[in-house]
Amino acid sequence: MKVCVNADICAGFGLCIGIAPEVFELHDDGYAVVMVSEVQPEDEDMIRSAARQCPAQAITLGDDPTVS
User: Fold this and answer.
1) According to the model, what pLDDT value does residue 7 have?
2) Residue 32 DSSP class
3) What is the CATH number for 8?
4) Of 23, 27, 25, 48, nearest to 37 (Cα)?
5) Molecular function (GO) terms listed (predicted)?
6) Coil, strand or helix at 33
7) How far is CA 51 from each of CA 47, 67, rounded to the nearest angstrom?
8) Looking at the 3D structure of the chain, how many domains does it have?
9) Host domain of residue 45
């Protein structure tokens, strides 16, 4: 599964980092970035949780048709 953070709408709350620190990190500009190109199957539930809990809804997943 691919995961993407839309930098245009990320507000830098950091909830995703608290949920999945091995996948997300806070960039120098204060917004979340993805550190891996592909999420391992065993981490998919954790990533889905991060996407659901993102207040800005800035995280999209590879099973979302808008992710390329």
Assistant:
1) 92
2) E
3) 3.30.70.20
4) 23
5) electron transfer activity; iron ion binding; iron-sulfur cluster binding
6) strand
7) 6, 13
8) 1
9) 3-61
